[in-house]
Amino acid sequence: MPKDRLIQKVDVCLLTPHMLAGRAVDALLPQSGFTLNVVQLRSTDLISDLRSIPAAAVYLVDAYTCPQYAAELATRLSEIDSNARVIALGEAFCESETLPLLRSGARGLMSHTDLCEHLPQAIAEVAAGRFWVPRVLMSHALKIMLDGARDNHGDGARESHSRVNGDCTPREQQVLQAILENLGNKEIAARLHMAERTAKFYVSKLLARYGVRRRTDLILLHFQRTAKEPRSVDPPQQIPTATSNTRRDFD
Description:
The chain is built from 10 helices and 6 strands, in the order βαββαβαβαααααααβ. It is an alpha/beta fold. It folds into 2 domains: 10-136 and 233-249, Rossmann fold (3-Layer(aba) Sandwich), CATH 3.40.50.2300; 142-227, Orthogonal Bundle (Arc Repressor Mutant, subunit A), CATH 1.10.10.10. It has a 6-stranded mixed β-sheet with strand order 5-4-3-1-2-6, sandwiched between helices. Helix 8 (185-192) packs across helix 9. The longest helix has 17 residues, at 135-151. Mean pLDDT is 77; it is low at 1-7, 154-164 and 231-251.
């Protein structure tokens, strides 16, 4: 995880069924340049319309009670705003809960311990377009993603990469595909018949283009974009209402 850094002013919105959670988050953001909105939801019914929720650079979703509900919230937020950046907060996350949350578009997963120690840094990282996921959970999720990529490797997979990454040149597409298969620079160079330093150049260029610093983040980002490809729409669900809205400014 990155060390402390200068944190710019960020609008943050906490979605929770418990107003006490707002006070807890409030206490973890002293004089850090954040504007915090706390929105209390009346129930844990699925949300189909979040357009009344205050806009924010980062959304904190309370997953203490129900991680599946947090995943649904993250999905709905990303449907409204494709750039929505979500951090799920929970007591702890198990491996079976990680992939659905990442598939839903969550950029961060924070256990209670991590939350107490690193919340400002995590918000800053996610606001900048990066990920904040515990190493153990990241490794497990990547293994499943890479296994799936190998199983689906072929024309269908290549068409998916082309749709998601249409702004890449053909050569960049080839390098991107190799990264998604978790190949190192030397292996990429051998596959594509190029110098290793050339492979390193392409990898660095792709990381910069997608605003990430690590290959694992790029794999996660691609996984999330692919998961958002058109799918069948479920019938509308009951819409819970936000009962209160608490706003606090930290200068």
